[in-house]
Design goal:
Blueprint: H1 4-24, H2 32-39, H3 43-54, H4 58-74, H5 83-89, H6 95-106, H7 110-119, E1 125-128, E2 134-137, H8 145-155, E3 159-163, E4 166-174, H9 181-191, E5 204-208, E6 221-227, E7 238-243, E8 246-255, H10 260-273, E9 283-287, E10 299-306
Antiparallel strand pairs: 1-2, 3-8, 4-6, 4-7, 5-6, 5-9, 8-10, 9-10
């Protein structure tokens, strides 16, 4: 018989598989029966376990992820791109169901969101309105585009290149990206005794599934990862993840902890400014050193954004 802790780790592992599946198939029909099958639970039990671990129902999670994915794209949407096609390609049945959900979530129409967001390159702060909608404050955490461009030019030269496939193991994290270190601690404690930490050949990586400009901090999803040279057995909080090979905009930085957000903002601006389009894929960082051993306590890191 499994202990309570072993049972909890088993549940976490099963729900993580579902979360990974949802993130990779947002444009597909994600029925409760299908997700429960992936988790190896009955539909009723799956709904209860998922809701308890993620603090929202499967349906709410799927709808939110779809809306936030579209919201992120809206900030850089070209004039010739159709909002209807974007909504349908993201899993909504109609433009009407998308429009209702978007307004309910952000307190404004998608068109207004796009207009304001492209006018002000900002990190979106969200406040709860009287009717429960998440109203967007574009003015909060405003960043100057010119200053970001100059800062990026001083820090790195961005390259667009084909990146190889990365096979890794991961620990999922929900919440502020600044707290992903907790997930790395869990991963390191697991990987060390198994002989998987062969630095510098082993690389640490962070994968980020949400944009702080459109997702509430408490709901943001990320993964703490390390590369693996061979297939390893995983369980509990530890699962496998593969970043497929593909084209990425890559900037190598030397960053203090408080500069990561600025680096991501400047890279996100560089992509449309240089006529590239963001594609579906893994937004990630690859770390090349231990900041504790750097004379200025800086991370040497590649920030990688998937582009077409």
């Amino acid at each position: 018989m499994k202990t309570k802790n072993e049972q909890q780790l088993l549940y976490i592992n099963r729900i993580n598989k579902v979360v990974d599946y949802i993130d990779d198939h947002l444009n597909k029909d994600l029925s409760l029966d299908k997700l429960a099958e992936i988790a190896c639970f009955s539909t009723f039990h799956f709904h209860r376990v998922f809701s308890a671990l993620l603090d929202e129902t499967p349906n709410n999670y799927i709808t939110r992820r779809r809306i936030e994915k579209i919201a992120g794209r809206l900030l850089f949407l070209r004039k010739d791109e159709s909002l209807t096609n974007l909504a349908l390609d993201s899993g909504f049945n109609s433009i009407h169901s998308f429009s209702r959900a978007f307004r309910r979530f952000y307190g404004m129409s998608a068109s207004e969101f796009k207009k304001r967001g492209q006018k002000e390159f900002s990190k979106i702060g969200k406040t709860e309105s009287k009717n429960g909608a998440n109203n967007v404050s574009f003015e909060k955490y405003f960043y100057s585009m010119d200053n970001l461009k100059k800062w990026l030019k001083m820090k790195t030269t961005v390259e667009v290149k084909e990146m190889p496939e990365l096979k890794m193991v991961q620990v999922r994290h929900q919440g502020s990206y600044k707290e992903i270190g907790k997930a790395f601690e869990v991963l390191m404690k697991w990987a060390g005794p198994r002989g998987l930490l062969n630095f510098p050949k082993t690389k640490m990586a962070g994968v980020y599934y949400d944009s702080p400009r459109v997702t509430d901090e408490s709901k943001m999803q990320s993964s703490a990862c390390i590369t693996t040279e061979y297939d390893v057995e995983v369980s509990g909080q530890i699962s496998k993840i593969t970043i497929p090979s593909g084209k990425f905009a890559v900037g190598r930085f030397e960053l203090k902890v408080d500069e990561f957000e600025k680096a991501w903002n400047s890279m996100s601006l560089w992509v449309p400014e240089n006529n590239f389009e963001i594609r579906d894929g893994h937004f990630h960082e690859i770390y090349h050193n231990d900041a504790e051993q750097h004379p200025e306590r800086k991370w040497v890191v590649d920030i990688c954004i998937p582009v077409e």
